[in-house]
Amino acid sequence: MDCCRHVNPFRACAGLRGLGYLMVALVAAIAAVSYYAVVVYAWGPVLLGGGAHAAGAGAVLAAFHILLALILWCYLMVVFTDPGAVPENWRHDAEDSGDPALSTSEDQGSHPRYCSRCQNGKPPRCHHCSVCDRCVLKMDHHCVWVVNCVGARNYKYFLLFLVYTFLETVLDTLVLLPNFIEFFRDESRHSSSPGDIAILFLAFVLNLAFTLSLLCFIAMHMSLVTSNTTSIEVHERRKSVAWKYNVGWRRNLEQVFGTKKLFWFFPLYSTEDLRNIPALRGLEFPIRSDVVV
Ligand SMILES: [Zn+2]
Ligand SMILES: [Zn+2]
Fold first, then answer.
1. Catalytic residue among 118, 143, 149, 216, which?
2. Is 3 annotated as catalytic?
């Protein structure tokens, strides 16, 4: 297990600025509103009151807190993990490994790339981020929600963050639905304070909105992962030509999640995977054997 290998504590100082501050505050506010509505207002009193629904309330609250812990874990890992920096004086290795499936050569007809801003070589799939002002290995995008770039070494953490947040918003929406329906009944308006009703309404609407938007976002990223394409490369690849990094959905998936199934669900990699899968380090990527490079 090697979860802290690429942790860069200086990201907190360098990245938490401008819009990033606002987004972090927004994430915290949404989490606080949801926590109050689900735990304090809706289901906590049911559990404490005992009775027929106490066991159900216990299950809801347990699921809520487990997902919340996983979200927090993944979120912190995306924020504080360096997505991948180019080693100083990096040079493209022009020599082919001999095995076309393991080749790390550059694009057909293109020269080894160079970043004039960083004054350094650019490995395959690396891009310069104008927000971070540096090159990022297998850059996917700069994410204002996590005030960090999403790249080779934290893409899995970002995906898990999306999936667990989606599951939490689905849970919140479902368990707040009975209270939300009550909201429209006249008698309920007298039993709750205006503040509680406002928080319940806000929590339900926000969670429903996030459920729907996250579903689209997750579907898009699953399609990218299974075809081994980054959000940037979608605009670069030509539809008519086979994508050279697409080495089959299983190997594509392993290049992001690793080979150990237990680790798929957590923002961790096994030491073995980090050693055996070069793509996880972000400098070398296997290329399809049927694509001429
Ligand atoms: Zn650069
Ligand atoms: Zn960036």
1. 143
2. no
| Alpha carbons 95 and 103: distance in angstroms, whole number | 9
pLDDT over 60 at 11, yes or no? no
30 vs 170, which has greater pLDDT? 170
Amino acid (1-letter code) at residue 13: C
3-state helix, strand, coil in the chain (%, to 5): 55, 5, 40
Condensed to tens digits (0 to 9), the pLDDT of residues 212-235 reads: 999 999 999 999 999 999 999 988
Q: Locate the domains of the chain by residue range.
A: 1-293
Measured CA to CA, the distance from residue 120 to residue 104 in angstroms comes to 18
Tokens of 250: 């299983």
pLDDT at 105: 38
Cα of 147 vs centre of ligand 2, distance in Å, is 8
| Cα distances (angstroms) measured from residue 109 to each of 135, 181, 191, 238, 293 | 22, 62, 72, 15, 8
Interval between CA 134 and ligand 1 midpoint (Å): 4
